[in-house]
Structures are given as C-alpha cells and as structure tokens.
Specification:
heterodimer; A: MetI-like fold; two-stranded antiparallel ribbon; B: 301 residues; mainly alpha; MetI-like fold; flat; disordered N terminus
Chain lengths: 304, 301
C-alpha cells in the first residue's frame, strides 16, 4: 500500500518534497529549523569543534586529534568514565529489579492502591536538585538521619558523601529511589496488557505461582523490560544533577562523571574543544551501548 | 451455573486452607507495599519536618520528628534570603513557554508525519528518532556557542548568553519525544475523517486544526505535563545560560541558596519544599495523563 501510495504521491509533484510536499514543508518548518540548528547540525559541528583549542575569547586553533590524545591520558577523565560505568552498571539493574517487584505487587485491585502508587511515583516528578538537597541532609555526617538511624544499632557515623568508597554507592541509592516510579509505570502497563486467559490456561495446566511467572508473565513482560532498559541506560550515562548537589563544591575523582567533566571543562575552564571531544566520547559510548542493546533484543525480547 | 463456578475454582471450594493462605499472603503483600510506600516518602516527610524546626531541634540526638512548635518563620526567612518570588515567576514563565512551544511545533510535525504524503517522509522521521537517543549534553557546547553568536538587543552581553531566551526558544522548534508521542496518537485517528473533510474542500491546515487537534486532546495533555515537568526541573541549562540572580529559575536559585546557606537545613528544606510543591500538586491532579504518557510511549516504542 505504501509503495503504491508513495509513487503516486511522488508523481503528483505538489512541491519540493513531492505529493503534499508544500504543506509538509509548512508543518515541518519548525522541526527542520530545530534539527538544523539545535540537534543534527550541532552534532556535525562538534566534529569540527573537537579538533580545535578554543576558549571563546580568541579565535579557535586547529589542533587535530590532540584533544582526544589528551583525554586518553587525563586521569580525571578516565575516573569520570570509570565512575559513570559504575553508576550505570549498578543503578540500572538495581532500579529495574526493585521496580519489577513493586509493579508485581502493585498489579492488583485493592482499595487505596492509588495512594500507595502515588507514593512510589512522587520522586519522579520532583526536581533532582530539591530532592538531592534533602538527601544531602539525610547523608550528613553530623546529625544526618541515616547516621542517627544506624547509631541505634551501634554503627558509628559514616561520611556517606565524602568517603571515596561510600560516595558513589550513596549517590546510586538516591538515584534508584528517584527513578523507581518510571520503571514501575512501564512494568505495570506491561503487566496489565497480559491476557488473563493465558494465566488461567496456565493454572488449569497445573502451573504454580512461580511457573506462571517464569513461563507466562516474564516472557510477555520482556518488551517492557527492554524499554525500561533503554531509558535507564541512556539516562544513567547522563547523570549530572545529583553529582552537582551532593558533591559541592566540586566532585572529587571518586565521583566525577562524564557529563560533569563536560560541564567543568566547557563552562568552568572554557576549554570548548576539550569539552566537545569529551562529549564525542559520551556520544560514541551511548551509541555503541544502545546499538548492542538493540541487537540483543532478538535473543530475549518476545513480541506478541 | 453454580456447579460450573465450583468446577472452575476447585481449590477454593474444596478446603478453606488455600483461601486463608491466600488472604494472609495478600495481607503481607499489602503491608509490605504500604511500608515501602512510607519508606519512599521518608525524604519528603523529613523535608517537611526539618523545614519547621529550630536550630536546636535540627541537631538534637535522638532526632526530633515533630517539632514542638512549628517554626513557620523559616519560610519567611527563606523567602527573603534570596528573590524566591522572582525564581518562582521565572520557572512558571519558562515552563509555560516551553509547553506552548512543544505543543504547537510537535503537533504540526506529528501531523505531517502521520497524515501527509511526501518524499523523504521515512528518512526524515528516522533522523528525528535518532536524535531521541542522543543525550542533549552532547550538543551542550555547540548550542552554547550558537547562542553566543546570536545578537540580542536587550542583553548586556549583546548576545543570548545571560538571557532566558536559550531556555525556551528551542521548544518552538520541535522535539523528537513530543513528535513521536503525538504521531503515535495521530496514527490511531482514522484516515477517512481527513479524507472526507478533503472531499468537502478542507485544506491540510483545516484538517489539522479542526479534526486532529481536538481528537488528540488526551495526548496533548500528556505532552503538556511532561514538558512542564522537564522545564520546571531543568537544572544544567539554567546554570549555564543565566547570569543575573533575578532571572534565575527555582532550580538554579536553590543551588545558589545551597552554596550560601551551608548547614542551615531548615531554610534549605523550606526552599526545596516550595520548589517541589507545584509539581506534586500537578502530578496528583493529572496522574492519569502522566501514567498514560509513560505507558503509551513505552508500549508502542
């Protein structure tokens, strides 16, 4: 249908894009300008900028691949890569696993369930800056809620945010707390789309609770799991706000992330070429991981 | 009839034990859910509680959960410590502009991608989808450079840096998420509706304006809420572009506040609470749209 439709549309030739091209151009004008100057265009521009040394005050100086060579031996950048990898590898699976449990538990009709659900969703809609402020207070070494709570069990006060071993896990814990709601919503929608007769049929065949979950629910939920995986993965590589608030005035090598590295070099040190080179690395990492992840779906995602 | 029902649920009819076990399991589950829900709320409750404490209560051991005499003055002190009124107005203004911009530009693009036939439709939509997975931080530097090159008649820098314009003008130039979300919805509108109007002499703009937009109200509401939320909670863009404190948003203002009032937890918590309340109210009022948005883009992705 589309092939025939498209050919006919092309023959009609109403404008530069063929068919209803003139109208399409009108409707797409804002988007095309946006693509050109704010997203696709700038991505091409980053190629050029990353090959320069540019402080914005003097003219850019072409330095070839020097920025990338420098990144490869910049200890802070390597730490940023390692920390971002740690953050992603812990927060993504942890968040998805916990949300799956919550969604399974929430997937039932009980009076007042809407209120319980709201409690799980609230952190999603509130700004990371505001909630990170209260987490900074919860994690405070002096009189912080967490230390006071652990003190009851005889555990001494910890420096949750300044101890290099504890800082990143503490940030991960806060982020998992904040992100749960999104995954829960997607899993709930996926669970509610599972046909009841499939579950009933499995019961009649003698499948127990676990067997039903393992052989019916889980396979049907894989599209939702796949989707939350994409969202969480892309989001995790971009972690910035919580680092900014919880690691003031400046993250140490134990907590700096790629986006903070870009921010710091671009907007604190005004090393535009260097910051852009780092964003290229971020782009390539996200692209590679997303591609691998999309490739993997044939092996484990079941579409109905 | 009754025998059929009994046959369908033999386990329940045969003995009271599985039924009771199920009830107990359900009770435990609900208990865990409520406990988990309360645990999720602890940071918010602690925010409220701290915002009403005296200095002595903040550092008391064991911690005070309910301040003896709620110190409402903390809110007045917070409000006058920095121009929070201006922050609030700026956040509202930017959120509204971003929402309007996204609704207009994304719905137009979504209409073209779902109801019009033209060459390059597929590749163009593909290009837009690619930008959906590209982290916007990748274009942070080039966008900053672009806005620095654009002349601005009223700014002290002469360009767009230091003005609020970079924080909303882009919203009028489309967006991958909004276009994708609305296109998914537009595709469910029967083509015959548009075709019939076309036969009656309506042009695409009239079809968009009088058929597609009214029918897409739920999807538009979803996009509006998401855009409002993103704009309200955005942090990295305000701290990069804004210079004058009077032009700060609540997130940028809170960050400034954090730097100036280190350890003054009651004031900081009061500020944090004031900045999250509008989103919480919006969420409770529009929960339906919010949940549908995530589910819609998730399931049809």
């Amino acid at each position: 249908m589309t092939a025939v439709g498209r050919r006919r549309a092309g023959n009609r030739g109403g404008g530069p894009l063929g068919g209803e091209g003139r109208w399409a151009l009108l409707f797409l004008a804002p988007t095309l300008i946006g693509l050109a100057i704010l997203s696709a265009g700038p991505i091409l521009a980053t190629v050029a900028i990353s090959l320069t040394e540019w402080d914005l005050l003097t003219a850019p100086k072409l330095v070839g691949l020097d920025n990338f060579v420098e990144l490869a031996s910049d200890d802070r950048f390597l730490k940023a890569l390692r920390n971002t990898a740690f953050y992603t590898a812990t927060s993504v699976p942890l968040g998805m696993l916990i949300s799956l449990f919550i969604a399974l538990a929430l997937n039932q009709t009980i009076r007042g369930i809407a209120w319980i659900r709201t409690a799980y969703f609230l952190p999603v809609v509130t700004s990371t800056i505001a909630v990170a402020l209260v987490w900074q207070w919860i994690y405070a070494a002096d009189s912080g809620l967490l230390n006071e709570f652990l003190g009851v069990f005889g555990i001494g006060p910890q420096k949750w945010l300044s101890n290099p071993t504890l800082a990143m896990p503490s940030i991960v814990a806060m982020s998992v707390w904040q992100g749960l709601g999104t995954d829960v919503i997607i899993f709930l929608a996926g669970l509610q789309a599972i046909p009841m007769d499939l579950l009933d049929a499995a019961s009649v065949d003698g499948a127990g609770r676990w067997a039903r979950f393992r052989n019916v629910v889980l396979p049907l939920l894989t599209p939702s799991i796949f989707f939350t995986g994409v969202l969480s993965l892309i989001g995790a590589f971009q972690v910035f706000d919580q680092i900014f608030v919880l690691q003031r005035p400046r993250p140490t090598d134990a907590t700096i992330t790629i986006v903070y590295f870009i921010y710091e070099n671009g907007f604190k040190f005004f090393k535009m070429g260097y910051a852009t080179a780092a964003s290229w690395v971020l782009f390539v990492i996200v692209a590679v991981f997303t591609a691998i992840y999309f490739r993997s779906q044939n092996r484990w995602v079941h579409y109905q | 009839m009754s025998t059929a029902a009994a046959a369908a649920r033999p386990a329940i009819e045969r003995s009271p034990w599985p039924a009771r076990a199920r009830r107990i399991r359900r009770g435990v589950l609900i208990g865990l859910l409520i406990a988990g829900g309360i645990l999720m709320m602890v940071p918010f409750l602690w925010m409220i509680s701290t915002s009403l404490k005296t200095r002595a209560e903040v550092f008391a051991t064991p911690p005070v959960f309910l301040p003896a005499h709620p110190r409402w003055e903390n809110y007045a002190d917070m409000w006058s410590a920095l121009p929070f009124g201006a922050f609030f107005v700026n956040s509202v203004k930017l959120a509204v502009l971003n929402t309007v911009g996204q609704l207009v530009s994304c719905s137009m693009a979504a209409f073209a991608f779902s109801a019009l036939r033209f060459r390059f439709r597929g590749p163009l939509f593909g290009l837009l989808l690619v930008t959906l997975i590209i982290p916007f931080q990748v274009v942070l530097v080039p966008n900053f450079i672009l806005y620095r090159l654009l002349p601005h008649p009223f700014s002290t820098s002469g360009n767009w840096i230091g003005t609020q314009e970079p924080l909303w003008v882009g919203a009028f130039l489309g967006g991958a998420f909004g276009t994708f979300l609305l296109r998914q919805f537009f595709l469910t509108i029967p083509r015959e509706l548009g075709d019939a109007a076309r036969v009656d002499g309506a042009n695409p703009w009239q079809i968009y304006r009088h058929i597609y937009l009214p029918l897409a109200r739920p999807a538009l509401a979803t996009l509006a809420i998401f855009t409002f939320m993103w704009s309200w909670n955005d942090f990295i863009n305000p701290i990069i572009y804004l210079r004058d404190v009077q032009s700060f948003t609540l997130t940028a203002g809170l960050s400034l506040f954090q730097g100036q009032y280190v350890g003054k937890w009651p004031l900081l918590m009061a500020g944090a609470l004031v900045s999250v309340i509008p989103m919480i109210v919006l969420f409770v009022l529009a929960q339906r749209h919010f949940v549908r948005g995530i589910a819609l883009t998730g399931i049809k992705g």
